[in-house]
Design goal:
This protein is an alpha/beta fold and about 425 residues long. The chain has a domain of about 160 residues: 3-Layer(aba) Sandwich (Rossmann fold), CATH 3.40.50. The chain has 16 helices and 13 strands. A six-stranded parallel beta sheet has the order 3-2-1-4-5-6, with helices on both faces. Strands 7, 8, 9 and 10 form a four-stranded antiparallel beta sheet that branches. The protein has a three-stranded antiparallel beta sheet with strand order 11-12-13. Helix 2 links the parallel strand 2 and strand 3. Helix 4 runs antiparallel to helix 5, helix 4 runs antiparallel to helix 12 and helix 15 crosses helix 16. The longest helix has 24 residues. The structure holds 6-O-phosphono-alpha-D-glucopyranose. The site of 6-O-phosphono-alpha-D-glucopyranose has 10 residues, from helix 12.
């Protein structure tokens, strides 16, 4: 059986870590991992989450060593894979990112809205520092990014670091499984022409055992036969392709604002409650498997996506997986050096995107606009340029005007001052405390 010597999880105190480790328990017959090093800046969380993970692994009878450390370099030393799942500023910063825009009637949302802009700016300096350590202590490692906004962070790594970076999301797998379920076939029977960016993607065509089922799916949406699918039949008919989950924020921003106002709390506040409950559960010394409440977070199948990717890289499977990589012409109407989320061939050689061709004209303008937002966000996140920052705010499709962009920018930068060394050089910083 192939052996992986060491995997590091940066942000190992995340409530998602048991999900990740569970993936290796499920795939125990295909690969053996000698060590999983959990790194976090929050020692208490690290102990709670690390404790559960340790019990899970023992309970499953695996010999994998689980190590815990607050020393990032020790965690990274000699690893084959780095998983990044950090949250600079913690959940409090996410909640703030959601609440400030809401005052202006704007959805903050940490991957599609101005919340994502600020989350990217808090994260980029830290992600690049991690990358510098990877360059030094594990130059051959794969840096697998889960940290949101995943596409933007991946793009920052691709453009500004010298590591083998790839971004990962569970949504492609969720949709594959959804469609497989509708047709009563295994996942492997489904092929999706998935085009766009992380959380900004459309299924251009869906095939089941080679049969194009796109028209049937569009009809089903029209007949209301896909109740959990949030897009209305007329929209989908007009687009001629199937938008995926996070596009709700761009197609229905007013609905999303109304939902949030009616809920009386933001997603971040809900997630903070879920996390509190999870951590209390994790601390129970009798718990030896991941608890079902973990499914209240949106990351279902995240471990499956991670393990499949790692297995194909290690075992040279050369199968097709949908991940975030440098475009390089895979979608010719998007910048070549930016990140895209497309089907890729994954093997020991690396990750090769399939040439998907031009975007459908019904979705191209939105996709290009969001890419412009991502590009300016990366530039501002790396350089701290105010001009790039204003352009990032302005190009986000959820921001309605230059006036709102300017006000959001000032208020959100100020609120995040402690985490933005690129914008406030010399200001007392909390970011280091969070490394
Ligand atoms: C999905 C998204 C991720 C997100 C996760 C958790 O997997 O693709 O980007 O981080 O859900 O979302 P939540 O709102 O529970 O934090």
């Amino acid at each position: 059986m192939p052996v992986i010597n060491k995997i590091a999880v940066i942000g190992g105190g995340s409530t998602y870590t048991p999900e990740f480790v569970d993936g290796f328990i499920q795939h125990r017959d295909e690969v053996q991992v000698e060590e999983i090093a959990l790194h976090d800046i929050d020692e208490e969380r690290l102990q709670v989450v690390g404790g559960l993970v340790e019990r899970m692994v023992r309970h499953a009878g695996l010999e994998t060593r689980i190590t815990q450390t607050t020393d990032r370099r020790a965690a990274l030393d000699g690893v084959a894979f780095v998983i990044s799942q950090i949250r600079v500023g913690g959940m409090a910063a996410r909640i703030q990112d959601e609440k400030i825009p809401l005052k202006y009637g704007v959805v903050g949302q940490e991957t599609t809205g101005p919340g994502g802009t600020l989350k990217a700016w808090r994260t980029i300096p830290v992600a690049l520092e991690i990358a510098r350590d990877v360059e030094r202590y594990a130059p051959d490692a794969w840096y697998i990014n889960f940290t949101n906004p995943s596409g933007i962070i991946t793009e920052a790594l691709l453009k500004h670091a010298n590591v083998r970076a790839v971004g990962l999301c569970n949504n492609p797998l969720n949709f594959t499984r959804l469609i497989a379920g509708l047709f009563g076939v295994p996942d492997g029977a489904v092929f999706l022409e998935w085009v766009g960016l992380n959380h900004v993607n459309w299924i251009r065509r869906a095939y089941v055992h080679g049969r194009d089922v796109t028209p049937e799916l569009i009809e089903r949406v029209g007949r209301g036969e896909m109740p959990a699918y949030p897009f209305d039949g007329e929209l989908v008919q007009a687009l001629g392709v199937l938008p995926t989950w996070y596009l709700q924020y761009y197609y229905y921003p007013d609905r999303k604002v109304a939902e949030m106002q009616a809920a009386g709390k933001t997603r971040g506040e809900t997630v903070a409650e879920v996390e509190g409950d999870l951590l209390r559960k994790y601390a129970d010394p009798n718990l030896v498997v991941k608890p079902s409440e973990l499914s209240l977070r949106g990351g279902a199948l995240y471990s499956e996506a991670a393990v499949r990717l790692i297995l194909s890289l290690v075992l040279d499977r050369r199968d097709v997986q949908i991940v975030d990589v440098r475009n390089g012409g895979a979608i010719p109407d998007l910048p070549a050096e930016g990140a895209v989320e497309v089907p890729c061939v994954v093997g020991a050689h690396g990750i090769t995107p399939l040439r998907m061709g031009p975007l459908p004209e019904t979705v191209r303008p939105l996709c290009q606009t969001v890419k412009a937002w991502e590009t300016w966000t990366v530039e501002a996140g790396v350089t701290g340029s105010r001009r790039a920052a204003l352009l990032a705010m302005l190009t986000n499709p959820l921001v309605p005007s230059a006036d709102v962009a300017r006000r959001l920018l000032e208020e959100m930068l100020e609120a995040n001052r402690a985490y933005l060394p690129q914008f406030f050089p010399g200001a007392p910083s909390d970011a280091n405390r969070r490394l």
